[in-house]
Structure formats: C-alpha cells, structure tokens
C-alpha cells in the first residue's frame, strides 16, 4: 500500500512537493485554505507534468497516474491518516506553530511532521507540539521538480529515526540530501545565499558596480550558474529580505542585515520576476 503524504500549502513550493511525491508513488492530499489556491496549485502541477511529457521525460500514462494520486482539500483534518506531513506555508513562525499545534492533535502518534521552512529554526516550530522528536526540516528548492537538493534540518530534539525517515522520503522523490546538524537560523543554504545577496545588494546600492557586473563576477569568477542579484529576482527580493531579516534577528550578525535598497524595492513592489522588475527588468 502506498504511503500517504499530506502537504499543507498549495503554493509554488507545496504544489511542487506534491508533484514529485505523487510521481514517485506517494498518495498525496494537498491542503490550502481556499478552493482558488488549490485550483491554481493543481493546474500548475498538471501543466508541469504536461511539459515533462512533451519533452519526453515522462510517459503520458505515468503523468495521468501521478495526477490521480493527488487529492485537494481545504480541510486540515484530511491529514489525520498521513504517514508524513510537510508544511509549506508562508514564512511566519506564528502561522507555522499554529498549524503544527493543530496537526499534533490530529495525526497518528507515529506520523512525522516536517517543515519546508528555509530560515526559521525547527526547534521553535517543534516546541508547539507534544512530539518534538518527530519534527524535522525538509527544505526543498524551487522549482521543486527541477532542483535536486533537499536540506534536512535536525531540531534540538529531532530523533535519529525521524531524520532517517525524512531522508528516505526525500530520496524516494529523487532528491540528494544535505544534513544540518545544528538548528541555526537559515541553516546552511539560506545563510550562504542571504550573505551573498546582502553583500551584492550593498555593492550595487553604493554604486561600486552594476547588477550585471556583480553577477558576471560571481558566474565567471566563482563558477556560479546564476549571479546573486539574478537569484534574488528569481526567488523574490521579498523572500530573501524576509529570510535575511529572520537570520539577523536570531543571530545579530551584521552581515545578514539587509541594505535599505532591498526594503525600498519591496515597498515599491519591485520584487523580481513575479512583479516584472527587481534588480533587472523582466518584461
């Protein structure tokens, strides 16, 4: 019998996690608060499967079977019989803690509760439950169907068994894992990209170099596939500002303090590709 996964949040990350999991044979229930959000998520999954089929990377019948393994709901109670729950909602600690507290009273004793957070300490989320040993971070990368990495984060009380089960899940959906053994804000990947983006934005803000030249320096000098400011536009300047703020609040390390230009860009709505303009124009 296929294992059951509940994904809480049908946005870009949640729908991507649902997509790769269903393709790997998991029975998936995708939950969000509105039918409109669920429809957008399901339509995105269907379109992504269609793209893989058109490129010959996925058989049409396999795509149909995977899509049939995904059900959608606005009812959190639908997670009650899940073997694993992955939360993928907005990066606000209060929202996540409320969801985890509710799930704690809903799901089976042996169910693992995972968060897709990119910067919030897992220990803080786990403390909202009576099972902190069964809470773990599973930080996927966007777009989930294309990105091979999953960052597994051990909270202060996460058990070895929970970490092993999270690895088994992530590897079952085709991901390579790295393990964060100490639950610092931002983990490994978000700390690295936040520090780089913050410094790149400071260089840009002070007129040291253009956005293009800063990105070229990282691509040709360090072999990066994409420069930090182009990465900020792809990810969302607002997302990286929020992540850097979270890390700075937790660590008080000045290298994570975002420059004023990032705040003003977000205030103005220039948050990258999704708005049409960030550090670069996107038409």
UniProtKB/TrEMBL annotation:
Record-marked site positions (Important for catalytic activity): 139
NCBIfam families in UniProt: PRK07819.1
Record-annotated membrane-spanning stretches: none
Name by which UniProt lists this protein: 3-hydroxybutyryl-CoA dehydrogenase
Domain 3-hydroxyacyl-CoA dehydrogenase NAD binding: 4-183
Enzyme class: oxidoreductase
PANTHER family to which the protein is assigned, alphabetical: 3-HYDROXYACYL-COA DEHYDROGENASE FAMILY PROTEIN, 3-HYDROXYBUTYRYL-COA DEHYDROGENASE
EC number: 1.1.1.157
The 3-hydroxyacyl-CoA dehydrogenase C-terminal domain, residue ranges: 186-280
Pathway recorded for this protein: Lipid metabolism; butanoate metabolism
Swiss-Prot/TrEMBL keywords: Oxidoreductase
